[in-house]
Amino acid sequence: MAKTWIYKFGGASVKDATAVKNLAEILRNRLRKNLIIVVSAMGKTTNSLEGILANKLNGLDFYENSAILKTFHREICEELFPANHAVFAQIENLFFQLDLQLQKPLSRENYDEFYDQVVCFGELISSKIVAEYLCYQDLLVLWQDAREVIHTDSDFRFAKINWEKTRKACQSTWKPMLENFPILTQGFIGKDPKGRTTTLGREGSDFTAAILGTSLHAGSVTIWKDVPGVLNADPKLFPNTEKFEELGYREAAEMTYFGASVIHPKTIKPLANAGIPLFVKSFLNPDAPGTKIHEHATPHEVPTIVLKKDQILVSFKVTDFTFIEEKHIHRIYEQLQALKLRVNMLQLSAISVSIVIDAQLFKFEQLLEKLKGEFEIRYNEGLELLTILKQKAEEIPAFLIGYEVLLEQSTRNTFQAVRRKV
């Protein structure tokens, strides 16, 4: 039986009409049977939908932003299709469904579930436009709803995969289709046992590609980005970056764990377990080799720099003159888990626990409310978390010039500092 191949195109690769045309050109000589194309929402659509949700939650007008988002997608369609094309009615219908969802009541208690029912429209709309354009260009693909095969639990915004059910669905429904046509689908979304839409975590389209790849025993997974491959730092933030020609699964997983944005953190594990190579390639230079992530990569000693912004440093201090014990740490982590807040850095002292977390809408306030009776709590917002893997001690001071360092720690292979501009 023929191997399946997975291509994933992120938001930057479908951000406007020119980008969609470029995607079609990439596929023109690569489109074949047994290929799945996974697409993300267009450009910053997910950010826009999150802004709409924030306005609704705070009792502010959100209809104007919704209208702007609709106009954005309609104008892309106007550049890609003739005025009488069926895509306009399809997009109109999807925005109608989105508006119906936005009219329902939203509160802090149902925010995560409501979020998934709204934010999924970014991927649904994007995939419809791209699929219709490919077919309009005589590049025939089957549009398929990822929720028909990606089965999850009901942990909204961070849904966990039901691997057995997902594998069976992929093999029984999509595998026969792929023998005749390539499939185009959405990243980031799935459905729970009750048929409700779930999402897999922010930027989760990479993970979708890995799920489909492992479920269908793919020959490889390719992620198309606006960078030439995996770099040792974000070129928008740091000069003189280096591209890795290849990376081992473990090195790549470590980079994503600490926040490297080029690949979603959950992507590597299923591919590593299945021995499926992952390619990161440039949609701006599609014939360049990119980076290959696989089992037999040669180790390297190039330092990798990861910078996470919008970080909060929180210190929990015991109030009864005792020392920090396991029960205190357990209590803090219990609340973090309940609120789905991930710890990016942890440091213990005799009388306090300090953690660094991402800023998340209203979740931090809930954390403080839950624990304020048990600890004296202090925090700083608007910080950056700098992580350097395979650091060279003599190079670290240069990264801290012009910054106040609130917390730092170092191991043999990793340096981390919480910093803010002075």
TrEMBL record:
GO process annotations (BP): homoserine biosynthetic process; lysine biosynthetic process via diaminopimelate; threonine biosynthetic process
Xref: InterPro entries: AceGlu_kinase-like_sf, Asp/Glu/Uridylate_kinase, Asp_kinase, AsparK_Bifunc_asparK/hSer_DH
Enzymatic class: transferase
Key words, A-Z: Amino-acid biosynthesis, ATP-binding, Kinase, Nucleotide-binding, Transferase
Keyword presence, Nucleotide-binding: yes
Pathway stated in the Swiss-Prot or TrEMBL entry: Amino-acid biosynthesis; L-threonine biosynthesis; L-threonine from L-aspartate: step 1/5; Amino-acid biosynthesis; L-methionine biosynthesis via de novo pathway; L-homoserine from L-aspartate: step 1/3; Amino-acid biosynthesis; L-lysine biosynthesis via DAP pathway; (S)-tetrahydrodipicolinate from L-aspartate: step 1/4
GO CC annotation terms, alphabetical: cytosol
Protein name: Aspartokinase
